[in-house]
Predict the structure.
Amino acid sequence: RTKLVFAFAAVFIGSLLTFGYLLYGIADRLIGAGTIDQLESLAESGSDAIEGIVEGWEERVQLIGSRTQLRASLGRFVATGDSAELVTLRKILDDAVLSVRSVAAIAVYDRGGAMVASAGMGSEPPPGSLPARSTSSTSDSPLFLEARPSGEPYPEIIYTMPLVRENRRVGSLLVVLNGNRLEELTSDTTGLGRSGELMVVASDPAGARTLHPVRHPLDGFDPEGPILLTGERDPAHLALSGVNDVEREGLEDYRGRPVWAATRFLRDTGWGLVVKYDADEKRSGIEEFGWEMF
């Protein structure tokens, strides 16, 4: 009889363990699927937010470029070289820098791309000439050129736009904008737990770089500005290569920690978006469940 009791007990315990392993596997899949959905949702909302920021920048450039007197004065100066028109141009640009929110500097160029006048103070003076792709563009819409370091936690965003008068191109406009909206977006960690992070990244000769400070200390220090991302397994490389997906395996962030990440490629600017969590944080719920079961 004692042997029978032990046999029943062994069967009972074995059944519990089997059931527990089944529940553990189900919990693993459910938590994993929930995390994937969460990352996808955060990546979509982040992508939409950046699209809205970019549209706002383009509207500001359009607002400046649509000033009739700006195009008229530039056209007359290019045609006649009248110094009075140059004075007028500088007054228009000064007014635009003061009146249009987030504008750091403005410059106008002739049809050949040589600077005519400028106003404002960016981190460095506007270029003396425009790149060829700016002067050869046939679009009448703002053209994104680059996001350059500014010495601040956020970059300067540079756009150019053709200036057309009476169906004829008279020159180009260059606008340098403060990219502080990117810092505001990426510094908001609401809903991102203790390790989650939303990052906007750009290509760099060294690999990739953020366009803002990061959430976590790096080598014991809190970075005050953008950082380089040189790790081969960094999800930034997926984002910049056009991958729009969620990955749970084989990724490491700038600290060398394994992460789960969703990536998006932002076509209008050529940037990448990364939303990531430490893998340890996401697996902790599964492990806690396992300890409670067993």
Remarks:
- Residues 19-24 have pLDDT under 50 and may be disordered.
